[in-house]
Design a protein that fits this description.
By secondary structure, the chain is an alpha+beta fold. Helix content is 29%, strand content 42%. The protein starts with 10 loop residues before the first strand and ends with a helix. The structure holds zinc ion (ZN).
C-alpha cells in the first residue's frame, strides 16, 4: 500500500480531471488516474502519466503552430 508523501496518510486510487497550464494555455484532461490522500486530500500523479500528458500537450501546441 502506498502512502502520502506529505503526511504519510493512506492513499486511494481515483479518476479525476486535471488541468495543466503549459505555454500560456490550459489543458484539461479527464479520467486521469491519481492517488488521493484520504487525510490531506493531496493528489499524486505517477511519473509515466505526467510524461504522457506533457508529450500530448507539446504535440497539440506545435501542430497548431505549424
Ligand atoms: Zn496526505
Amino acid at each position: 500500500m502506498s502512502k502520502c508523501a506529505i503526511c504519510n496518510g493512506k492513499t486511494e486510487k481515483k479518476l479525476v480531471s486535471v488541468t495543466f497550464k503549459r505555454y500560456g494555455k490550459e489543458f484539461t484532461y479527464h479520467n486521469i488516474k491519481v492517488k488521493v490522500c484520504s487525510n490531506c486530500s493531496e493528489e499524486f500523479l505517477d511519473g509515466p502519466t505526467i510524461t504522457k500528458i506533457e508529450r500530448e500537450i507539446r504535440e497539440k501546441v506545435f501542430e497548431k503552430a505549424a
